[in-house]
Amino acid sequence: MASAQLLAGKVAGITGGLTGIGRAIALEYIRQGAKVGVNHFGGPGDEPHLKSFLEEVSTLISSKDVSSHVVTVAGDISKPETGQQLVEKIVSSFPEQRLDIFVSNAGVCQFSEFLDLSPALLEHTVGTNLNGAFYAVQAAGRQMALNQTPSGGSIIGISSISALVGGGQQTHYTPTKAGVKSLMQSCAVALGKYGIRCNSLLPGTIRTQLNDVDLADDAKRIYTEGRTPLGRLGQTRDLAGPAVFLASDELSSFVTGAELLVDGGLFVNLQ
């Protein structure tokens, strides 16, 4: 007997949703009955990811008419208008004409030695990871405040274990992830009067396109696996379940301002 869909009738938006963690969450939301609007950067490099993503959606819903379940919007999330355009597209594309769930996921991570770090890399990282999260979450919050639904809505920021620990080659990255966590805490206070819940997910070491080069070093990969109590690196699907939990009114209606580590126990073993 098939289990009930946890997000049936819900409408969600996800930034950076064609690859990695964002893609895994988007597909699981669709599997759980939600309609989803996905932001991606755009350009030729995205075309294979977009094609395969839509093919997966088609398989999930057993239909080639994916437009009834998903819309995609290209745009640089570091620009203030991109988040707004995503929200507007979602609201106008689905008959519900609202936004129930929003996941701020888009991010970049390029390792660099602190003393060699260029202003351009710093600005790109902060612009995408933190400014982009702020603009997109603000656009989502504005829409959710208009929803006039009992649940208000759920906003989830994808932070990182890096918000809690330092990284010698991540001096530009870790502050942005700490910022996302802090943004969710402050938004929980600011948006609570609208019934909007705001929480963050803190992934540990997850195999994505962002760290493929770094984890190609067998010694580093084996070391990280050894420090993780569950004995393996995370997979993108490991974030999908926690993201459903925080999105679900049934499962997390009184959870806001919280942070959830999804790291296989790595953080507690770093002490």
UniProtKB/TrEMBL annotation:
Keywords: NADP, Oxidoreductase, Rhamnose metabolism. GO terms for biological process: fatty acid biosynthetic process; rhamnose catabolic process. It holds the Pfam family adh_short_C2. Coiled coil: none annotated. One of its GO terms (molecular function) is quinone binding. InterPro entries: NAD(P)-bd_dom_sf (IPR036291), SDR_fam (IPR002347). Belongs to the short-chain dehydrogenases/reductases (SDR) family. This is Short-chain dehydrogenase. It comes from Ophiostoma piceae (strain UAMH 11346). The lineage of its organism: Eukaryota, Fungi, Dikarya, Ascomycota, Pezizomycotina.
